[in-house]
Specification:
Length: 67
Amino acid sequence: MKKTDKISYRQKSSDELKKDLLELRKTLIETNAKYATGNQKDSSIFVKTKRKIALILTLLSEKENEK
């Protein structure tokens, strides 16, 4: 993940982060299904998506602790 991606996530509101989190979780499930059927060959997408999810969860907990 690029540094600019991390900065852009930090500038988003909590609602936007939650929306992105749902989209990333859907993407992870869809990618897992594609990988299981053999349509997806690149397994690095799992790691990248999970890291983005972890970053968003971290940012959400930081925003909650600020309040």
